[in-house]
Every structure is written in structure tokens, then in C-alpha cells.
């Protein structure tokens, strides 16, 4: 077997392992998060606004911690490698998620989720690792395929979580997820190979120097802002989706299972179209795909304001999932193509910080709007945010076309 074939086999083994790791991470996350508000509700008798706020804080604190710490982890990744970061994330998440299942009050949950946020980041580091190991002409399809791992996990997680929560209670999904993340740690340690040359601290370029080397710095910052807005819009309803389903079902029926189905529907849409859009990004460029995705997401958010049953909400979330396939993978592909490989860790970590900030803003914004008005008002606000992003991205594209002409 020659060196080229050996490297290709090692690449496949790494890709498959990280794909499974991202799948399990998404599976575990989505097994627990749609039911977090119901779990909190079961701990104590809270008022409607208290429950909304506590759910939003418990959901958002993980992303706040991520936003604060991600630049440090990105710098460490560029010095020590992304494989180590994947091990760090999966190991700590195994402990904290399992411990949430043992919590007896909401403040313990909030503290544990904050710790989880400070040490999480498996999917982003796995994506950065594959970006550094993949040739640029295949970046779009590889980034899209990596997204299908998380999406498939997010698709199946709420279904499994709904069945488990309904049968055994809300704590069991947290116990199982903790064990799953322990398995991810072991798989990553044994199977992932990274061709990485450590960069001594004294030789690392400052992030300001790296930005000067990038030809289109404005595009990079626009991608950061786009990541923040996309994540804010997608996460705005997440902490309270089970409460919305409960309201639409008039507090009758198998609420946990239906909540799981509704939470999973975007995954079906994304999984259906992600691979095709990945190849399309390689053909026509990720920016065009991103503009299309932003417009489609805006259109699909608006009807959710008018839904009167959980099944119509599930339908529109399915279509939203198809638009999702053109959003974050396109952003990651743009970053992969525009940024020097030796700076992937830091640039992807900055993008993760913006994504985490969106994970803070979205749930808190959604919880406040739902508490002050109604759950479905959240969809109008998120549609407005995504449409503003579409306009900004469209104007940027037009200016780029004018300059090239």
C-alpha cells in the first residue's frame, strides 16, 4: 500500500469517526434540550413568566460561556491541534450532562450548563479539523456532509428523547447523553488522526496580522455577523418549543413525544437536501447559496406565526430545515476558502463565539417576547432578523459584482 492510499484511508477513518462523534453530540443535545423547560417545570411550581425566563437562562448560559471562552480554545487549537480540543469537549460534556440529570433545582442546572459551555465545542473543532485535512475543491461537500452528522443527530434525538422522557421521566435522557459523550471521547482518542505541526507560542501570528493577510476582511466579518443572526433566529424558539406545543395541544395528549417530533422536523428537511447543496456550493460558490438560504428561511418563518396545531408547525419547520442546509455550511465553506489554514483554529473559534452569542441572544429574546406577548410572536421577530441579514448579504454581493465588473 503506497503513502497516498494510506493517507486516504486515514482521512476516511478520521472523517467517519468525527462524523459519528458529531452525530452523537447532536443526538445527545437534542435528546435533552427540547424537554429542558418541562424538566425545570417539574422541579418546582413556577409562574408562566418565571418558567420562560428560567428556561431561557438555562438554555442561553451554555452559549454565553462558549462566546467568552472560544477565542482562548481557538488559540490553543492552533498551538496544540483540534483533536485535543475534541477530546476536551467530549470528556467534560460527558460529566456535566450526566450531572444535570441529578439536579434538584434550577440553579444547579444553570451552573452545570455554564461549565458545559466553557468546555464544549466538539462539533466546531471537528469541523475545523476536517477543513484543515480536506482539499479546497471539496470543501463545500465535506462541510455539508459534516453538517448532516449533527442534523441527523438532531433529527433522531428529540424522537428518542420524547419516548424516553414520556416513559421513564425527564432525567433519563440526561443520563444516557452523558454516557454517549463518554463513548465519543473514547472513539475520538482511538481513531482520529490529525496531520498537525504545533506552532510555538512565540511564532504564532497575532489575529490582527492574520486579518491583514485575508484578501476580503469585510466578507469574514460579514460571515461572523451572519452566523450570529442565523443562530439567534434558529435558537429563539428552542427553549420554549415544548411549551408552545403544549399550548397548541391544549395541554392534552402525549406532549413530550409531539414536542420531539416538532423539534426534529428541521432535521428531516436539512438531511434531505444538504448533500446536493454542498455540491452546489462547490459549483457556484457558497455566497450565492447563502443568499438563497436566507431568503427561503425568511419566507418559512412567517407562516409559523399563524399555525394553530403542532402538525402545521412541524410542516413549516420541515421546510425551514431545507433552508438551514444553505446557511451555516455555506458560512463555514466561505471561511475555509478565504482563511489561511494555519489560522483555522482561531478563525473558526471566533465564528463559534459569534454562533454562541447567537445562542445567548436568541433564547433570551424568544423567552422575553413569549413572556410579554405570545409564543408565536417570536417567529415574526426572527423572520425580521433573517430578512435584514438577507438584505445586507444581497447588497454585499451586488457590490462585489460591481467591483469585479
Keywords:
single chain, 405 residues, mainly alpha, Growth Hormone, Chain: A, 81% helix, transmembrane
Hey, roughly how much beta strand do the residues contain? under 5%
Number of helices: 17
Q: Which overall shape is indicated by the principal axes computed on the Cα atoms?
A: globular
CATH architecture: Up-down Bundle
CATH superfamily: MFS general substrate transporter like domains
Q: Helix content range of the residues, please?
A: over 70%
What name does CATH use for the topology?
Growth Hormone, Chain: A
Uncertain regions: pLDDT < 50 for 5+ in a row?
Answer: none
Q: Outline the biggest β-sheet.
A: none
Oligomer: single chain
* Class derived from helix and strand content: mainly alpha
First and last CA, distance: 49 Å
Order of helices and strands: HHHHHHHHHHHHHHHHH
Overall average pLDDT: 81
Question: Radius of gyration from the CA trace?
Answer: 20 Å
The CATH C-level class name = Mainly Alpha
Counted up, domains total 1
- Total strand count, please? 0
Question: How is this structure best described in words?
Answer:
This protein has 405 residues and is mainly alpha-helical. The protein has a single domain (3-192, 207-404), classed as MFS general substrate transporter like domains (Growth Hormone, Chain: A). 81% of the residues lie in helices and 0% in strands. The chain is globular, with a radius of gyration of 20 Å. The model has no long low-confidence stretch (mean pLDDT 81).
Amino acid at each position: 500500500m503506497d503513502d497516498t492510499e494510506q493517507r486516504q484511508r486515514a482521512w476516511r477513518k478520521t472523517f467517519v469517526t468525527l462524523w459519528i462523534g458529531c452525530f452523537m453530540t447532536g443526538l445527545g443535545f437534542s435528546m435533552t434540550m427540547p424537554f429542558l423547560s418541562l424538566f425545570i417545570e417539574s422541579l418546582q411550581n413556577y409562574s408562566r413568566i418565571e418558567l420562560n425566563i428560567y428556561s431561557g437562562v438555562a438554555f442561553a448560559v451554555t452559549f454565553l460561556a462558549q462566546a467568552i471562552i472560544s477565542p482562548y480554545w481557538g488559540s490553543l487549537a492552533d498551538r496544540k491541534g483540534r483533536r485535543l480540543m475534541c477530546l476536551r469537549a467530549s470528556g467534560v460534556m460527558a460529566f456535566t450532562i450526566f450531572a444535570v440529570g441529578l439536579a434538584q433545582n434550577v440553579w444547579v442546572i444553570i451552573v452545570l450548563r455554564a461549565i458545559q459551555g466553557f468546555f464544549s465545542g466538539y462539533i466546531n473543532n471537528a469541523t475545523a479539523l476536517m477543513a484543515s485535512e480536506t482539499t479546497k475543491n471539496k470543501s463545500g461537500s465535506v462541510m455539508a456532509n459534516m453538517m448532516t452528522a449533527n442534523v441527523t443527530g438532531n433529527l433522531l434525538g428529540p424522537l428518542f428523547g420524547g419516548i424516553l422522557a414520556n416513559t421513564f421521566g425527564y432525567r433519563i435522557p440526561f443520563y444516557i447523553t452523558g454516557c454517549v459523550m463518554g463513548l465519543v471521547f473514547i472513539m475520538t482518542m482511538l481513531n482520529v488522526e490529525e496531520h498537525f505541526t504545533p506552532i510555538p507560542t512565540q511564532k504564532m501570528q497575532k489575529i490582527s496580522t492574520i486579518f491583514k493577510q485575508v484578501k476580503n476582511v469585510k466578507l469574514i466579518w460579514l460571515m461572523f455577523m451572519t452566523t450570529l443572526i442565523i443562530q439567534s433566529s434558529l435558537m429563539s424558539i428552542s427553549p420554549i418549543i415544548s411549551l408552545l406545543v403544549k399550548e397548541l395541544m391544549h395541554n392534552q395528549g402525549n406532549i413530550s413525544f409531539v414536542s420531539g417530533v416538532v423539534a426534529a422536523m428541521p432535521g428531516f428537511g436539512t438531511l434531505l437536501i444538504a448533500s446536493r447543496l454542498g455540491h452546489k456550493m462547490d459549483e457556484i460558490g457558497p455566497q450565492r447559496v447563502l443568499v438563497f438560504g436566507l431568503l427561503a428561511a425568511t419566507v418559512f418563518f412567517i407562516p409559523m406565526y399563524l399555525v394553530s396545531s403542532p402538525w402545521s408547525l412541524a410542516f413549516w419547520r420541515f421546510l425551514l430545515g431545507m433552508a438551514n442546509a444553505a446557511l451555516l455550511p455555506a458560512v463555514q465553506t466561505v471561511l475555509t476558502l478565504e482563511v489561511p489554514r494555519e489560522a483555522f483554529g482561531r478563525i473558526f473559534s471566533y465564528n463559534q463565539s459569534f454562533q454562541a452569542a447567537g445562542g445567548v441572544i436568541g433564547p433570551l429574546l424568544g423567552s422575553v417576547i413569549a413572556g410579554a406577548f405570545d409564543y408565536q410572536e417570536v417567529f415574526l421577530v426572527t423572520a425580521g432578523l433573517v430578512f435584514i441579514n438577507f438584505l445586507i448579504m444581497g447588497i454585499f454581493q451586488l457590490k462585489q459584482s460591481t467591483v469585479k465588473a
